Amino acid sequence: MDVAARLREEATRGATGRLDIDAGELRARVWLRAGRLSAVATSSNRHTLGMGLVSNGSVSLTTLGKAQQMQRQHPGMRLGDVLVRMGRVSPRTVESITWEQMCDDAATVMSWTHPAMTFTDLRPEDVAAGGPEVEEILKATADRREAWQRAVSRVGGPDTVPVLCSGANTAHASLRPAQWAVLCRVNGQRSLQLICDQAGLSTMEATAALEDLVTAGLVAVPNPVFPPPDPPAQPEPPPTAEVLDPAPAAATEVVFDDPAELLRELSQLSGTQRPSRRSVH
After folding, report:
1. What confidence tier does 46 reach under pLDDT thresholds 50, 70, 90?
2. What is the structure's pLDDT at 44?
3. Does some domain include residue 113?
4. DSSP code per residue over 225-274
């Protein structure tokens, strides 16, 4: 049984709990509440809500730092709740970033073939409030994965290392915040995956932004690295006599950009001005 089929099965019975997914070196957890998706976490992605809000222009690095400091004083509060209480972002903005990251994580998990899966029933009070229906997230992830594959065919995948185009002038370019977040981290050494991690963008968001920057002539991809194609579907292996619970997903260290380092990167784009939020044409 694949992940999508297992999620549909648990949603049909209105389950509340956690699905542990083990695909060897890759692991994930999916939480459901009353059959609705509550959260998704994978061991392979490190994007964060805070840097996602910075990268889409919702908050500044200074504001993020203040919110993190307040969160350390009130560890029971989530970062999004802190920013909302500070009046820096709206709940809708936080929900939008969370949705994008959930779709990206879900699309990653859906590509795994024949992982070991174990569902643990939990009390409703131990799971965050349910969000989208399972079918809704499955449709969204399928659409995003199709768009991502089109972008990858042009600029490569997470291991691609983009470079700034010689003589590129961003002074009059019209960039969206996500495009700017990618552009200011392109130095010919960072891979697209590292840019994702630092900018707080999902892999799909960063790949789409990179494609736009290539189209605008600001960035080049001299040697795109294409990810291996998804393996063809194989017959599901027969069940073993004993199924061991997979180990919990390993905790990943969240590393935020140093504001001073980011400012130094921005200063290297000599003669540039921070562009507006309009799209690249």
Report:
1. low
2. 67
3. yes
4. -PPPPPPPP-PPPPPPS--PPPPPPPP----PPPHHHHHHHHHHSTT---
Q: Which of 47-56, 82-91, 118-127, 212-221 has the lowest mean pLDDT?
A: 47-56
Domains: count for the chain: 1
Residue type, 257: D
157 domain residue, yes or no = yes
The pTM of this model reads 0.62
Give the 3-state secondary structure of residue 120: strand
pLDDT of residue 108: 82
Cα separation, 122 vs 112, whole angstroms: 25
Domain-located, residue 103: yes
**What is the spatial distance between Cα 17 and Cα 164, in angstroms, rounded to a whole number?**
46
In a domain, 280, yes or no: no
Q: Which domain holds residue 261?
A: 3-227+242-268
Q: Are strands 116-121 and 36-42 parallel, antiparallel or unpaired?
A: unpaired
What string of DSSP letters covers 46-64?
Answer: ---HHHHHHHTTSS-HHHH
The residue count for the chain: 281
CA 132/CA 96 separation, integer angstroms? 12
